[in-house]
Amino acid sequence: MLFDSTVQTAPDYSHELALQARGARLVAGVDEAGRGPLAGPVVVSAVVLNPAHIPQGLNDSKKLNEDQREALFEQIVACASVSVVVAPPSIILSHNIRGATLWAMTQAVRGLSLLPDRVLVDGRDVPMGLPCEGLALIGGDGRSVSIAAASIVAKVTRDRMCAIMDCDAPHFGFAGHKGYGTPQHLRALTEHGPCRHHREAFAPVAAARVRLTVVG
Question: Which of 8, 76, 88, 100 could bridge across to 95 with cysteines, CB 3.0–4.6 Å?
């Protein structure tokens, strides 16, 4: 099922309330971080908020700065049911990025300590295998506080993983660009070739692998 795409100025709890009015008891929000980068995992979070303790300031993680995300992350994990699933480059290679994201979404929902009756998913796709009905909400991280919370948890988790990747392969600068195809990253790919954190099927990575093989 696909919710309408009416623009909102900020996320709220209205979509969750609408589902509860139709019989849902627990509503989860689901979002991902990291579909576009050339390296690192795609990270998915599922969150069931406590309606009596919704952190103030929840929004699309891209609209928040790092300090705001980190502070909200701590509040979310302290007062909500949270699940996080990581799809590493090997899963992305075997499932493709869309398939890996949908797989992780299903696993994240199933990993919640409080299993929901309905799931609000950011975007147009509803993953298969959910334990309940899923509803796609276009621009959901800017419309539903549950999805916004999931987007923050996924983003903070992935950023922390990129910092660890940076320690493992410092010449790529993962802590700064988070695996995206920045000029710095592309130069490092050309100079060093892909590392174990890169997504082999993504075109710039595959091209760098070919160049490395030819030179070698």
Answer: 100
First to last CA, the chain: 51
CB burial of 150-165 (b: ≥16 within 10 Å; e: otherwise) equals: bbbbbbbbbbebbeeb
> Reduced to 3 states, what is the DSSP secondary structure of residue 47?
strand
- Determine how many CB atoms are found less than 10 A away from the CB of residue 84: 20
pTM of the model: 0.94
pLDDT in tens, 144-175: 999 999 999 999 999 999 999 999 999 999 99
Going by C-alpha positions, the residue among 152, 155, 154, 206 that lies closest to residue 38 is 206
**Cβ(46)–Cβ(102) below 8 Å:** no
Distance CA 167, CA 204 (A): 22
